[in-house]
């Protein structure tokens, strides 16, 4: 059943332009975000692929101390953290933007949220099951997420298929 438009309440141009069957933008759900949240509950294999892609981008852009932490059993909100350190604001922005591009274009996943981009000391990218933390050196040392989430298992990057990993 479609909603009827009362044309007496509208100006002639508005009445002609409004289509009763057209959903309002707020009523339309973003299929990419909905799909990402649904995938979150299908297990961690997809999460591992997202984390591997993000880690690869960080390494390809000269990010340092790149690591993936499995925190599946510690929180119901997400499965994995990807952590990386950048040496400048420009580098952190480049890593952040390329992670967005790769995860959206190659994996069909869209970021749900971002924090800290303007300040560029700690940029947080939320992909639902995977959260990417990009730090400058001082901020990473100060917050020390590796110790804060010490019960998480560090996943070797080569185990995820990330290329260019030293040692």
From TrEMBL:
The keyword Nuclease does not apply. Pfam families: RsfS. Residues 1-16 have a biased composition (Polar residues). InterPro entries: Iojap/RsfS/C7orf30, NT_sf. It comes from the Bacteria. One of its GO terms (cellular component) is cytoplasm. One of its GO terms (molecular function) is ribosomal large subunit binding. The keyword Cytoplasm applies. It is found in: Cytoplasm. Residues 1-32 are annotated as: Disordered. Keywords: Cytoplasm, Repressor, Translation regulation. GO terms for biological process: cytosolic ribosome assembly; negative regulation of ribosome biogenesis; negative regulation of translation. Interacts with ribosomal protein uL14 (rplN). Belongs to the Iojap/RsfS family. HAMAP family: Iojap_RsfS. This is Ribosomal silencing factor RsfS.
